[in-house]
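Write out the bound-state structure for nicotinamide-adenine-dinucleotide.
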Amino acid sequence: MERIDGHTLLIGLMAYPIRHSMSPTMHNHAFAKLGLNYAYLAFEIDNEKLEKAVDAIRTLDMRGSNVSMPNKQKILPYLDKLSPASEMTGAVNTIVNDNGVLTGYTTDGTGFMKSLEDEGLNIIGKKMTLAGAGGAGTPIAIQAALDGVAEIAIFNRENDPQWEQAKKNVEIINEKTDCKATLHRLEDQEDFKQAIADCDIYCDATGVGMKPLEDMSLVNDPSWFHKDMIVYDTVYAPRETKLMKVAKEAGVEHVFNGLGMMLEQGAEAFKLWTGEDMPVDYIRELLF
Ligand code: NAD
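---
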């Protein structure tokens, strides 16, 4: 309470639904720990209210905002500038307001890569198999390619609206980076199994394993995995998904949920707004 005064700068989170989010707790604890005069609040904003909400960032001289579904792509036309990664992914999860000029960034991909680094793991020059091409899968694929992952096999359901996005991701990676990306149908189970057998890291960015698809996994047979690979689920509620259980049953040592990515995408946004490093160890201890 002592932090909030006439000088406090507001940072928002614009998404719908959003009341379940851990971000307000994470950022407000971090501001308090460092004695920074910001407050972070969640706002229920859908596509319909989005333009007015973005105007409010300028009108209220807010420092910025996070953006989540369903607004990550829809927000682009309302911003003044985009980071190179946002340009490539067509998505924004963080807005910074510099004297009325709004710049969009995407920190999900860098958050994913940083979370692996935090675990002492390096996937540069390695092979990735990735399921999903939505709000999480797209920035993960693009950032992994930009950072130097050698090959990415992207799987998506063919009869799904995100199939076109998966195609786009493959094209843009092959055109703009040295990574070799390939597009695969999730329906082709033999191909999927082979790609997992051949890769160093399998990442599921589909949300299968989270409500309402709890207790489901795209991989159910532990023999598809090998012990020395990484298995990463972007889901963090529940903390241990069906996919993670199957991977552990296979004896895979490096099995992760999406909490590390959540923390690190937040830490990068925190740095963009405040110029300070988020005390990530403190936050990890406190919340996870
Ligand atoms: P999205 O709706 O944008 O994309 C979902 C993707 O999964 C699409 O490619 C879709 O084709 C595919 N898909 C959906 N249902 C499927 C099914 N039953 N079988 C196979 N494929 C299916 O969603 P999103 O924003 O990319 O979120 C995906 C997951 O990532 C969610 O669980 C979300 O919570 C998580 N996420 C985590 C973080 C983090 O920081 N850890 C950040 C963003 C998203």
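---
Residues 69, 108, 111, 132-137, 156-157, 160, 162, 186, 205-208, 210, 213, 234-236, 258, 261-262, 265 surround nicotinamide-adenine-dinucleotide (CB under 6 Å).
The chain has a mean pLDDT of 96.
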